[in-house]
From TrEMBL:
UniProt catalytic activity: adenosine(2503) in 23S rRNA + 2 reduced [2Fe-2S]-[ferredoxin] + 2 S-adenosyl-L-methionine = 2-methyladenosine(2503) in 23S rRNA + 5'-deoxyadenosine + L-methionine + 2 oxidized [2Fe-2S]-[ferredoxin] + S-adenosyl-L-homocysteine; adenosine(37) in tRNA + 2 reduced [2Fe-2S]-[ferredoxin] + 2 S-adenosyl-L-methionine = 2-methyladenosine(37) in tRNA + 5'-deoxyadenosine + L-methionine + 2 oxidized [2Fe-2S]-[ferredoxin] + S-adenosyl-L-homocysteine
Start and end residues of each Radical SAM core domain: 109-342
Cofactor note text: Binds 1 [4Fe-4S] cluster. The cluster is coordinated with 3 cysteines and an exchangeable S-adenosyl-L-methionine.
GO biological process, one term: tRNA methylation
Family annotation (SMART domains): Elp3 (SM00729)
Gene name of the encoded protein: rlmN
Keywords attached to this entry: 4Fe-4S, Cytoplasm, Disulfide bond, Iron, Iron-sulfur, Metal-binding, Methyltransferase, rRNA processing, S-adenosyl-L-methionine, Transferase, tRNA processing
Gene Ontology CC entries for this record: cytoplasm
Residues engaged in binding S-adenosyl-L-methionine: G173, E174, S205, S228, L229, H230, N304
Annotated protein name in UniProt: Probable dual-specificity RNA methyltransferase RlmN
Length: 359
């Protein structure tokens, strides 16, 4: 990158303690970053002006700017975020459960949210169904740019730092193709004095880099893993995910079996259902056989069509039939509610739409 500065969000608290003295100033700055969502050094009123000026010469606070956002009637908000070098990527604010009230209209449970974050600008994987792949790969996001997505969206939605939230690494890019920065971002999210988002609230969704699944497992970060399977044989999976030539279904399944999983949890297998491609009962039968012996949960996802795609959305009847077969044969299975279907729901769609309008 050119003409850019590191962000304070790039650093763990321990790293900041080597950069900023005395140490108690780091506690104050950490509070401004993750509890007050400070946007500039001038916001940090209890930090001496001289130190703020010194830091401002070397660093930025938040490296992201909101360029565009679309709000769905279901509460989903899709963001297009711009980085210091002018590149853009998407993040999504997902409302998973509404606020629950008692008979006196008192809140008994607050609404629950998940943030879907990106890890790269573009993507190398080249999935044939994914709009992000059409734009090719530009670069990895830094750890700070990954962290900043959550800080920015929490701030924009007035979501207090101590409210629970889940993170899914399912936005633009392949998370495991940017493993070092991903792992650092996970550690920063887990900081007790920061956002304090535990590993069990973070899910890494991968298209299946089997060697990197092993590497992530050895890091023992306590995160969940989700596999974007999408097909039950290598021929179709290679059509949908060309990378399958190097990391075929068998290698992924074996890597999953080696991944350290909380005994109370299951491995999520994402299965994007495409009309006429993988929505038949024959595929369901093969899926049951493929996942035999794995403590798995299958999440069926409707394909969200976008202009120019060759694929179609499956019918609700076929989805239900597929799900019923899995459940009857012992697999835990859910059909994911489509979020933001009235806005640019497909990954990469808001970026393409916005940049098309600008051009």
């Amino acid at each position: 990158m050119t003409n850019t500065k590191p962000s304070l969000l790039d650093f763990t608290k321990k790293e900041l303690q080597t950069l900023i003295k005395p140490g108690f100033r780091v506690n104050q700055i950490f509070g401004w970053l993750y509890h007050q969502y400070a946007e500039s050094f001038d916001d940090m009123k209890n930090v001496p002006k001289a130190l703020r000026e010194e830091l401002a010469e070397k660093y930025v606070v938040n490296p992201l700017t909101i360029v565009n956002k679309e709000v769905s009637t279901d509460g989903t908000i899709k963001y297009l975020l711009q980085m210091q070098d002018g590149k853009t990527m998407e993040a999504v604010w997902l409302k998973m459960k509404d606020t629950q009230l008692d008979e006196n209209a008192e809140v008994i449970q607050e609404a629950k949210y998940t943030i879907c974050v990106s890890t790269q600008v573009g993507c190398k994987v080249g999935c044939s169904f994914c709009l992000t792949a059409k734009g090719g790969f530009t670069r990895d996001l830094t750890a700070g740019e990954i962290v900043a997505q959550v800080v920015t969206l929490k701030c924009d939605n007035d979501h207090k730092h101590n409210r629970k939230i889940n993170i899914v690494y399912m936005g633009m890019g392949e998370p495991l193709d940017n493993l070092d920065n991903l792992a650092k971002a996970i550690e920063i999210f887990k900081e007790d004095d920061g956002l304090c988002i535990s590993g069990k609230r973070q899910t890494v969704s991968t298209s299946g880099l089997s060697n990197k699944i092993d590497q992530l497992g050895k890091m023992d970060l306590g995160v969940h893993i989700a596999i974007s399977l999408h097909a039950v044989d290598d021929e179709l999976r290679t059509e949908l995910i060309p990378m399958n030539k190097a990391h075929n279904i068998n290698s992924i399944i074996e890597a999953v079996k080696r991944f350290p999983i909380d005994t109370r949890k299951r491995v999520m297998f994402e299965y994007l259902v495409i009309k006429g491609k993988n929505d038949d009962l024959g595929s369901a039968k093969k899926l049951v056989k493929l996942l035999h012996g794995i403590k798995a949960k299958v999440n069926l996802i409707y394909f969200n069509p976008y202009p120019g795609t060759d694929y179609d959305r499956p019918s609700k009847e076929d989805m239900v039939t597929f799900a019923d077969y899995l459940i009857k044969h012992g697999l835990l299975c859910t059909i994911r509610d489509s979020k933001g279907i009235d806005i640019s729901a497909a990954c990469g769609q808001l970026k393409e739409k916005t940049e098309g309008e600008i051009q």
